[in-house]
Every structure is written in structure tokens, then in C-alpha cells.
Specification:
mainly alpha; 5 helices
């Protein structure tokens, strides 16, 4: 399953596998595509706020721990990450690790900029 390969290094593990499995099932029923996207976005946002803050920056979001804008940032990032994960299921060739990391860094800094948080330097 390509989704498993596209999951962020910060979110690897059982929760990511369960989410990947849910995304795989969701992809089989495109009529309900909005519901799985919203559910995946919420799950990614929750992982961002809980697991991401325990990982040191720039690989995680530890610099945002206890920041009042963390929830807004994680919602933004969760939506972008879920869209990319679902879209990757239709890709025949998985992007390189470098491309995946670059895309994730751009999403993270895009969301940080959107909610008025300091950008990460990678």
C-alpha cells in the first residue's frame, strides 16, 4: 500500500498504520471520499498535537508545545497531510524520500505562516 510509504517519519507506528488502513478502505468507496478525508485530517491533527510536540524541531513540533495556536496549526497541517496521503494512493510510483520530506516541510511552514507562527529552518 503506497500510503504507508508516504506517512511522515514523525508519525510512524501503530496509529499511522491504523490510519493508513482506514485510508485504504476509504479509497475503495469514493462516494464517501469527503468523510474519510475529514476523519483522516482530524486524526493527523490529533497526532500532530499529541505526538508531534514530543519530537524536537525541526523534525517535530516541540517548539509549539503549549502554544495557543497549536490546534489551529495542527488542523491546517492535518488537512494538507490527509489530502496528500489520499492522493498518493492513486500514484503509480511513490515519490522519493527526499521529495516526500520536502513536501512535508513546505506544508508545515505553509501552515505555520498561515496561523502566524515562526517558520522552521531545515
Amino acid at each position: 500500500m503506497n500510503v504507508i510509504r508516504h506517512i511522515s517519519l514523525a508519525f510512524r507506528g501503530a496509529p499511522a498504520f491504523a490510519l493508513s488502513l482506514a485510508l485504504g478502505v476509504a479509497a475503495m468507496s469514493p462516494a464517501h471520499a469527503d468523510a474519510p478525508l475529514a476523519q483522516a485530517a482530524d486524526q493527523y491533527a490529533q497526532m500532530c498535537a499529541t505526538q508531534g510536540t514530543s519530537i524536537p524541531a525541526p523534525h517535530g513540533e516541540s517548539d509549539l508545545k503549549d502554544n495557543p495556536k497549536l490546534g489551529e496549526y495542527c488542523k491546517c497541517f492535518g488537512e494538507k497531510f490527509a489530502k496528500r496521503a489520499l492522493a498518493s494512493m492513486n500514484d503509480k510510483a511513490a515519490p522519493s524520500l527526499e521529495q516526500t520530506v520536502s513536501e512535508e516541510q513546505a506544508m508545515r511552514n505553509g501552515c505555520r505562516k498561515q496561523v502566524g507562527l515562526p517558520l522552521l529552518k531545515f
